[in-house]
């Protein structure tokens, strides 16, 4: 029987015939999506930043404090916790592109920190000094430690479960819930005609992350399909519990990000969106929704499907694809 899991160095050295077309298709889409941060003229947003309130600037700085180190943390999870345990060449191709994208996102957030008058030292320190932010990072680090500092035997049922736990922690929770929650806050400024170019940068990052999420969900479902002994009721309850715990952590984080609220946005609004996201991720994994919360930010569904312009004068299309066919 074909298995996507395996640690043999000489396995996965031939791409064709492709065993998992979904991974190959995602790789090709990821290549088409290639972009570079300096293609966006962020300096044009400086006037907006100057007229934002202290609470608005706090929210933006808070997002940078979280996103910047965690893009690199995702890379560690991929390099140490996913890539070594897969034997399909098409998966390795996609993961290599995803790791480059995470590095590119890190550089994009550095670009934001370099452009806006943000205290970089304070922003860097926040992911350690702010308890709600540090708690999220500790949650993620605990899972990758099983893959790096401890022994993981992927041939055992428990080893396979640890592999799935890491995927849920990083692909589903970190990228699929926590990152998306932050993206919504970041893009909410553009809803008020602020930071339009920054919004375009976030659009590109969201487009990448949507593929990361698709890859992670497909990988989890493939592992469970090929290894049905892994998916006991007890393990399912554990995975579901991880996601619900993650929602509570995100709620505390969002209250720290928006202690007073800003125009059109407060922590309760963002947390409703978090619950909506969690229900979608639960459904994608085969669970029933838990919160049954309506999407308070329906504009997010269309935010990345519409043609965005960097500004009204330089009609730069942020929906372009490399080598796209007319």
UniProtKB/TrEMBL annotation:
The chain crosses the membrane at residues 167-189. It comes from the Bacteria. InterPro entries: Ferritin-like_SF, RNR-like, RNR_small, RNR_small_fam. GO terms for molecular function: metal ion binding; ribonucleoside-diphosphate reductase activity, thioredoxin disulfide as acceptor. Its EC number is 1.17.4.1. The keyword Oxidoreductase applies. Binds 2 iron ions per subunit. Fe cation 1 binds at residues 71, 102, 105. It is an enzyme of class 1 (oxidoreductase). Pfam families: Ribonuc_red_sm (PF00268). Its cofactor is Fe cation. CDD domains: RNRR2 (cd01049). Keywords: Deoxyribonucleotide synthesis, Iron, Membrane, Metal-binding, Oxidoreductase, Transmembrane, Transmembrane helix. It catalyses: a 2'-deoxyribonucleoside 5'-diphosphate + [thioredoxin]-disulfide + H2O = a ribonucleoside 5'-diphosphate + [thioredoxin]-dithiol. GO terms for biological process: deoxyribonucleotide biosynthetic process. The keyword Thylakoid does not apply. Provides the precursors necessary for DNA synthesis. Catalyzes the biosynthesis of deoxyribonucleotides from the corresponding ribonucleotides. PANTHER family: RIBONUCLEOSIDE-DIPHOSPHATE REDUCTASE SMALL CHAIN (PTHR23409), RIBONUCLEOSIDE-DIPHOSPHATE REDUCTASE SUBUNIT M2 (PTHR23409:SF18). Tetramer of two alpha and two beta subunits. Belongs to the ribonucleoside diphosphate reductase small chain family. This is Ribonucleoside-diphosphate reductase subunit beta. It comes from Tessaracoccus aquimaris.
């Amino acid at each position: 029987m074909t298995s996507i899991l395996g640690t043999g160095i000489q396995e996965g050295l031939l791409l064709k015939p492709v065993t998992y077309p979904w991974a190959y298709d995602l790789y090709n889409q990821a290549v088409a999506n290639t972009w570079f941060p300096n293609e966006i003229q962020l300096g044009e947003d400086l006037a907006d930043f100057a007229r934002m309130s202290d609470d608005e600037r706090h929210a933006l700085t808070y997002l940078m404090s979280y996103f910047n180190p965690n893009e690199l943390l995702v890379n560690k999870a991929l390099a140490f916790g996913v890539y070594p345990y897969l034997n399909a060449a098409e998966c390795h191709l996609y993961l290599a592109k995803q790791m480059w994208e995470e590095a590119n996102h890190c550089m994009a957030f550095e670009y934001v920190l370099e452009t806006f008058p943000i205290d970089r030292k304070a922003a860097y320190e926040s992911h350690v000094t702010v308890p709600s932010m540090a708690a999220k990072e500790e949650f993620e680090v605990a899972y990758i430690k099983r893959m790096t500092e401890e022994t993981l035997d992927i041939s055992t049922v428990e080893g396979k479960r640890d592999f799935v736990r890491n995927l849920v922690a990083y692909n589903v929770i970190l990228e699929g819930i926590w990152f998306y929650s932050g993206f919504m806050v970041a893009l909410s400024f553009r809803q008020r005609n602020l930071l339009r170019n920054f919004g375009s940068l976030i659009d590109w990052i969201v487009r990448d992350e949507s593929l990361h999420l698709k890859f992670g969900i497909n990988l989890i479902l493939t592992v469970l399909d090929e290894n049905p002994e892994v998916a006991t009721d007890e393990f399912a309850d554990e995975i579901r519990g991880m996601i619900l715990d993650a929602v509570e952590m995100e709620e505390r984080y969002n209250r720290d990000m928006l202690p007073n609220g800003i125009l059109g946005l407060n922590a309760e609004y963002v947390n409703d969106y978090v619950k909506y996201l969690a229900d979608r991720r639960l459904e994608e994994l085969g669970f029933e929704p838990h919160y049954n919360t309506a999407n308070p930010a329906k504009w997010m569904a269309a935010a990345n499907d519409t043609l965005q312009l960097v500004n009204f004068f330089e009609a730069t299309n942020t929906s372009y694809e490399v080598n796209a066919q007319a």
